[in-house]
Specification:
Blueprint lengths: L5 H5 L5 H13 L5 E2 L11 H12 L12 H15 L8 E4 L1 H13 L5 E6 L4 H8 L3 E6 L10 H7 L4 E7 L11 H13 L3 E5 L15 H4 L8 E6 L12 E4 L5 H11 L5 H7 L5 H27 L13 E5 L4 H12 L1 E2 L1 E2 L11 E5 L4 H16 L4
The site of pyridoxal-5'-phosphate has 13 residues, from helix 5.
Length: about 400
Amino acid sequence: MLKLSHLSQQVQPFHVMELVKKAEGITQAGHDVIHLSIGEPDFPIPSLVSSAFQEAISNTNTRYTNALGLWPLREAIAQHYWDTFQVKVDASQVVVTAGSSAALNYACLALVNPGQEVLLPDPGYPCNKTFVQIAGGVPRPIETSSAQNFQPTSQQVEALWSDNTAGLLLASPSNPTGTRIQTAALAQIAELTARKNGFLIMDEIYQSLCYGSPAHSIMQIIGAPSDKNGVVVVNSFSKYFGMTGLRLGWMVVPPHLLSSIEKLAQNLAICPSTPAQWAALACFKPNTLDECERRRLVFSERRDFLLKALPQVGLHLSSNPEGAFYLYLPSPYDSDPFCTDLLEKAHVCAVPGKDFSEVDGNKMFRISYANSMDNLVRAVERIEKFMNGLPN
Ligand SMILES: Cc1ncc(COP(=O)(O)O)c(C=O)c1O
């Protein structure tokens, strides 16, 4: 009998895939399922990016690039930080990766020793645990509540930090909650991780999808990643630029980390997709930035609609989701059967919290508003009917 590795058995599946499979069955049976489950923008890739991608293919710009990415793209990303946040980033510290997934993977492999703990807010993005485990590390949850907007405090980090802690991985805005960490709290956490000589991986993948207040970066607080501050910034072309399938992200790393990341990138991927990198250069053109800004406003309208409509059908949010395209809500009953019932009876697919939280995932569920306003309106009507049919 073929023997599988311990790691392969440790990795958790996405429980939601079971639900999505069920949704496919319902669709095949002729029903129209409205998906509030999807973690990717419902827009096509921006038009200039699409043309640049096609041009790269027809110009046969398809050979390997440098493992750290195309230099002009690294420069463009560094320039973008200056233009947007007035933060000076040296292009040599920018590494282009296959989505932020590869960046998170490389960062953990370069910074975590077997047996060391990495602190991860709970609820959080499920793959983070796996990235830590692949490096031989031990994920340690920081339990957060809606009262603290699902973002950790420096007091919590300090209380959980031990001699065996390697660092902390944070996301703001976060998946599944859409909440952002306050600047003061982030500054305290960054000061703490630096004082402990640990790392802080800051996942800013939803950075530019913010509503109500402007986008921010940890680099506005601490400056560019340095060997002293131990911060690694992670970002992606997937969400704001809507390029999920092109598999492109980036990281900004302290100089001391660069050669380790380069070796890992050379060995694990050789380089990120070449045509995707040429295409991504078009992201920073004014027309693309305008297109993405218009899309952000569409997300903002959808969010406002749901924030008003959901309480009217008995679903009350207890946190303040200021970013991404997610709402994380208390479930009327155990979120696993609730999401199954919602799918089977109302044909609306939402995600139970157990993918995101070991603590109280069964009490929560996630809605994604990466779907058209028409579909959101129809989904709320269906949810209302379903909720009205629940026993009191
Ligand atoms: C918080 C967070 N980080 C990272 C990722 C990985 O995204 P990608 O690899 O497409 O950049 C996701 C995807 O949903 C996410 O939600």
